[in-house]
Design goal:
The protein contains three helices and 14 strands. By secondary structure, the chain is α+β, with helices and mostly antiparallel strands. β13 and β14 form a beta hairpin. The two termini are about 25 Å apart.
Length: about 190
Amino acid sequence: MATVYPRTGVYRLEDYLSLLDPPGYRLELARGALTAIPAPGPRHQHACGQLRSALHGAVTGLGWEVYPPINLVLAADTSRQPDVTILTSIPVGDPIAVPAAGAICVAELVSPGSEYADFHDKPAEYAAAGILWFIRLEDTPAGWSGEVLTLEDTGAARPEYVQVAVAGPAGELHVPFLDLTINLRDLG
């Protein structure tokens, strides 16, 4: 379960970037509030690695890179650590945080305790930052299921994600912008 970091007041991006993750947790900044999220378990991490590997193979030759969790700056008061991020512009040096403008896709593997954020908060934040593609995977008793969403102007107040591909447990998930099909059974 995610918990709010023990300090009153609103955190700024520079406050967040100066902190160290507490042991066993990852920190994220969402609208000025700092949250400590339990570190993912081995099954989650294995699936993330398999997903990164599949995506890496698909972006080879495009000049893009696939990253494990990085500090992705979405707004002046919001920085998330997606499970997987595809950047089209590679950061120079080794920055502690990367602007969302360089991201074309993020992926979240739903974790116990972060369901609400993974289904509501994070997609809205990624959409507001203009990230074109969002992949969400969920571990179910029958195996991994998933969906691919793309950013569209639906006539709402701000752009929203619209589902373009879905796969049930242990199915095959098509990632249209990479012309890639991921066999969800391979995630573990």
